[in-house]
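User: For documentation purposes, I need each entry recorded in a consistent format: the amino acid sequence on its own, followed directly by the corresponding structure tokens. There are two entries in this batch. Please keep commentary to a minimum and don't merge the entries.

Assistant: Recorded as requested. Entry 1:
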Amino acid sequence: SSSSSLLIRTLNLARCQADNPPTAPSEIVGPLLIGSSPIPLIELLEWNESGLVLNNEALAHCATEAEDLQSGNKRVQSSTLVRDDNKLFTKLKVGRVQRRLEALAGQHPNLNKEQLAKKLAKAGMGEGMSAERIERVTRVPARK
């Protein structure tokens, strides 16, 4: 469903921000997309006695003004966004495996790339990748 796709995109964005922390406040939360209208989330927030809350009236107004991107019964995320999310997820996964491989290479300087990849895969630290794939997508740091 579209809500689970949105949750997956949000989780991927959070993982990306955890690996590469944002530098500006505008990078922390992207604009909210309602139909075809990107709306800065800051415009929908209000401060009242209970703290920071979402202004539901402003949100409803923005939703009525927005055009529907997908007509008919097709209410799913476009394949381009899903593909971009998958690319990002794969990039983050490979980065984590690369850091683990570099740490393992520091502990075992005499092992070659194939042996390091097998060791990572066998230990279950390869993010579900086979030893062959780990070997293909990573680089072994130069020996000192």
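Entry 2:
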Amino acid sequence: MLNRVSKCVAVALAVGVLLALTLAGLRCSELILFARNRDSGLQFIETLRDRRPADISTNTWNNALTWTKTAYSNVFFSCDSVSSVDIVDFNREARSKFTAKADLQSFDWAWERLARSSPFGEEYTGKFKHEYFESTGRNLGSAQTRETGESIKEPRRKNDEAK
């Protein structure tokens, strides 16, 4: 009887260890995929450094690029807060937008799209969008979306709802 119980315990432990290893492997795979997708987007944004339009100063262009990379990194900081699918979708859309034309309005679009990527994206872009626009020598109220020509609106803040 004791031998049979020992075998059952050993089998249960082996199954438990295999399950734990499987779960750990899946988590590692998820983290690696997330990091690859995030790094791919950062590398793409960096390729835009050499695509500065002639009518935009190097300083303004570099500010827009650096602020956008920082926003991207902060919005897509963890696979626990946003999925790899969200990053892949953003990267695909960004490549399409920037391939057609790279200008400050393209970076503005990226900020709008990052805001829609997750609740944290909306919070982050709402918090730092003013600094981004100021660093590019523009006011938030004067910027327009590329698609509609409408003014970019400042996101509602939590405190605004209480008023």
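Summary note for entry 2:
Confidence is low (pLDDT under 50) at residues 144-163.
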